[in-house]
Structure formats: structure tokens, C-alpha cells
Amino acid sequence: MEAKILGDKKATGRTGMDLWQILVLGVVRLGLDADYDRLEHIANYDTLLRQMLGVAQTPWGQGAKVFNHQTLRDNVALVDEALLQEINALVAAAGRSVFAKKAGAPAEPLAIKVDSYVLETDVHFPTDLNLLWDAGRKCVDLIEKYRADHELPGWRKAQDWRRRLKALERMSSQAAFGGGADKAVRVHGVVSDYLAVARELSAKVGASLLGLCEQPIVGSQWEALAYFHIMLDKHIDLVDRRLLQGSALRRARRCIRSSSRTPNGSPRASSVRAWSSGIGCWWAAINTG
Known about the structure:
- Mean pLDDT is 79; it is low at 256-289.
- 58% of the residues lie in helices and 2% in strands.
- Strands 1-2 form a two-stranded antiparallel sheet.
- It is built from 11 helices and 2 strands, in the order ααααααααααββα.
- By secondary structure, it is an all-alpha fold.
- The protein has 2 domains: 2-98, no CATH class; 128-288, no CATH class.
């Protein structure tokens, strides 16, 4: 710290902050991610922190030591993350010698202990049928969320849309991946019903998107709904062509289910990510108007 903080300083005799106070306040600033206004308040009014700084409690009637804003900014800013890493390495090395099994023995090699655990998640194998359900469900979820602050008529039976779409998705999956007589006929019938409901849902979501354009809404919220609406239309087209028309699709046209983030950056447990060049063109067209 002396080399970093006092290296180019001259001994002017002016009172300021000692190295210990700079170190403590530097750790506090980086640990709390605090600005200098908050740091000034803590340094001058937090009793416990002032005891750590070595500031004596002044008798009644005497002035207490005050850390001025500019003093903190000039000195504490010198303690950066790189300097703290160097100090941490020195403290860790000293601690290894203190807790050595035998006095004077060489330090043992570092050993790292790792513990692991299983995190329960909701991840299913991605198929066109369940990805269509994921996209429709996310559209309904976002619309229900936005209804609290925006006028979105026609969604009183939002939960009924979820139940209908989910029921048809299960029936379609059982028919498509199961066996039995007249499988092609059964798949065509139930998938047609599934796509009919999905197209009705897509039309309602599209109307709601247009309605939100006339209301004050955060851009990231509108973009999130528009993204899943695009995914809904995309998988309607994929299911129609693959299961009803029997078309073989290229690998680049398929999508995978991902538990990453939505376009607004917030974590989404069941978001859908597209790996198709065509979707990027649609998305750019929506952003540019």
C-alpha cells in the first residue's frame, strides 16, 4: 500500500487519512459497491465502522473527526481491486504459515474441496409440439402480467387458453409419438385442432401487441411479447409443415428450448431461442418499425 499510495506523494505535514483507514474504507466501498456520498455517510456516522477505523470517541463538547468528501475521493480511490488481490494473497500466505501442522515446516500444497448438489429444473426434450406450447404459454403469461398496468381487453379467459393449448399439446404428442391403428389419421385430426387453437391465440396476441403500441409501455416488455409471438407463429408453421404436410426441414430451421434469458435480459425459466436466420430478419424489422 505504501508503494501504491505514497509512492509519488510528498511529506507536506498535512493531516489526512492513514493507510489503515484507506484500506478499510476501500474494502467497504468495493464490497458494498457504494458511491462516495454513501461512503462519506458511513465513515462519519456508522459507529461500528468508526471503531474499526480507529477513530476515538470524543468527549462531550469536542468535535469529532470528520472525513470530508474530497478527502475520501482522493485517497480511497487509490485502493482498487488489483491492490486488494495482492493484499489478499499476502494475508492468505501468512495464514498458511500460522496454521501449519508443524512449526517451521514448509507449506503444504494447496488443496481445494468442492461440494456439488443437484438443482431441480423444469427442462424437457425439445420438440416442435412442446416448443409451440412453450411459446403460446409465454405469450399468455406476459399478457396476464401486463394487464395489471395496461388496457388489454379480451383476455378474461386467459387461463382457459392455457388449458386448451396444453391439453391439445399432450394429445398431439401422444398421437405423434405413440402407435396404434390409423395413426396418420389420428395425428392429422388432433394436430389440426392444436394448430387451430394456436392460430386463434396468435391472432389475439397480435391484436394485443398493436393495442400496446398506443399505450405507454416499456420497450423491453413489448419486445419480449413480440419475440414470443414470433416464436408462436414460427412453430405453428413448423408443426404444420412437418406433421400435416410431411415436409423434411433443414436442421438450421429448427429451434431448441433454452433456460437462459428473454430479449429484455430478465431470466426466463422456459424461454425459447431461435437458431434461424429468418427470425433475425423479422426481429430486425419489428425493431426498426
